[in-house]
Amino acid sequence: MSNEAPQPLAQGDLARTPLAHVVLSITERALDGTLALWPEDGRPGQDRVLFQQGVPIDARLLEPAATLERGLLPLFQRKAGPYAFYASDLVGETKVRGAVDPFALIAASLRGGARREVVDAVLARFGEHPLRVVPSEALGRFDLLPKEKASLDVLRAEPRSAPAFIASAVDEKVARRLLYLLAITKQLEIFSGEVGRRSLTEVTTGGTAATGASPSAKPAVDEFAEAPAPRAAAASDDFAEVTAPAARAPSGASTAPRAPAPTSSPSTRRTPEGGRRPGDPEPVPDAPAGLSPELAARWQEIAARAVAIEDQNYFQMLGVSQTAGPDEVRAAYFKLVKQWHPDRLAPDLQALKLTAERIFRYLTEAHDTLAEVEKRGTYLKNVQGGAGTPRAERALQAVLEAALQFQKVDVLLRRRDFAGALRLVDEILALAPDEADYHAARGQVLFKQHGVQDKVMLAEATRALDAALARDERCERALTTKAELLQRTGKERESFALWRKVHDLYPKNVEAQRMVRLARMRGTSSSSRPPPPDSKRPPSRVESKRPPKGDDGLLSKLFGKKK
């Protein structure tokens, strides 16, 4: 075996290229190898992160950590320090081995802060152009918090510029952080269509295709080396020239994590048990007795058409293909007018007047959109993305309205306006009954309002929290609220198990950190009782922070000291 130190494929300094951008560059190219990071304080040694196909799978760190994710997160807060990437395994196998989705890792790291000058430089590239979210399964990989999901829903529903989006947000930090995350992961593009309309032909929906964005709409990861830096770079950045190495993946490495399935689009969401959402049309009345067979058949025809048209796009409504020209669209429309105009209803069918008017209104909207070239082109992109139906439009508007209103719930909770918060949550649930965080908020409001003394309200709060966890077992609001509820009712073991789960899923959760820290001070395990809040027992001796042994030979020559 040769003791000659390997040559790096790329090197630079975090002062010029933040770690998030370095990791994204490695991920984008699906590289195999080791990223070495020298501490900015000049300590000896390095943090070494092993990548397989662009995914972090292991690390040998200067500061020991229980999991790979926890060990990597502090590295993203470094503002400077050399880095280098090598096409070989310089880590070996450690106790923290386990793949971490880089998108979720970067999203979590930004909650700990990001350099303001870098964020401003990235967002400034979009100028005042309206932005929209690129339809992509990658959105499901970020593992966003409830506030971030609400902001994302707002941006997905209506394009707007970065300054306008930030100015209108309830939490400016969340909005800025979300835009930056979407920008560096290439999930944003400049929107070239009209802004401000509420119809499906102008509103962006999740799953729609792009509409001719400017070339500058998607900043490449490598461009961010030009972001302002607080000091001069210590080494040249050359990730732009790196190609995927042919190095063999380390043996025993975990495979890359599969991205979570994207949330269902508005066009596929349904109210449980067939319930009607606000804004849904009134159901078609039953046919009265005594109609002639001809009128009874016509009644059923109208009723069937009224149901079917809610899930049809404009092409299907008119019965034309997506390549039909304006003349064919007009001919199809005027043929349907003779059949569906509400003024042509027989006297005995006047109870269907509102239903017929709704059908005719949809047909007219279809004609007006498809007969105009510009509107048709924009609408076609919606259809190709799986949207474009009346039901999808209502669902989209409901999701948008719910997301906008939900940002007010926490404000009301801070004001201790529990009655107002509960009314608002119930209105939101009527708009979007499938969102876990909305059910969790209802349980949280009831618990804060009534405590544990009112057994009826306590049971209702518990049902709401369980409903949230049934929809999303990782719902942070539901987990933390239920953990507190269990603790207040004396079920300390169950409570602590949930706090541990929160701590594992969301390492930045302050209350979960406190509870786990108190448990460790008493030497408890996940299955034992948590310590009382007034515990005075001193913490046990922490682990040695010296780097692991076994770094002799090549590794000690390569990483013995900062070059």
**Mean pLDDT across all amino acids:** 77
Give the helix/strand class: mainly alpha
How many domains? Answer: 4
Count of alpha/pi helices: 21
Question: Alpha-carbon distance between the termini?
Answer: 23 Å
Biggest sheet, spatial arrangement of strands: 1-5-2-3-4
Shape: globular
Task: Show unreliable segments.
Answer: 194-274, 524-563
Q: What oligomerization state is this entry in?
A: single chain
Could you explain how this protein is built, in words?
- The protein has 563 residues and is mostly helical.
- It has four domains: 10-99, no CATH class; 114-226, no CATH class; 293-396, Helix Hairpins, CATH 1.10.287.110; 404-413 and 429-521, Tetratricopeptide repeat domain (Serine Threonine Protein Phosphatase 5, Tetratricopeptide repeat, Alpha Horseshoe).
- Helix content is 44%, strand content 6%.
- It contains 21 helices and seven strands.
- The protein has helices at 19-28, 68-72, 102-110, 116-124, 146-157, 162-168, 172-184, 293-308, 314-318, 326-340, 353-370, 373-384, 390-406, 409-414, 418-431, 436-450, 455-471, 476-488, 492-505, 510-521, 554-559, and strands spanning 10-13, 33-37, 47-52, 55-60, 82-86, 131-133, 188-190.
- The strands form two sheets. It has a five-stranded antiparallel sheet with strand order 1-5-2-3-4. Strands 6-7 form a two-stranded antiparallel ribbon.
- Strand 3 and strand 4 form a beta hairpin.
- The longest helix has 18 residues, at 353-370.
- The chain is globular.
- It starts with 9 loop residues before the first strand and ends with a helix.
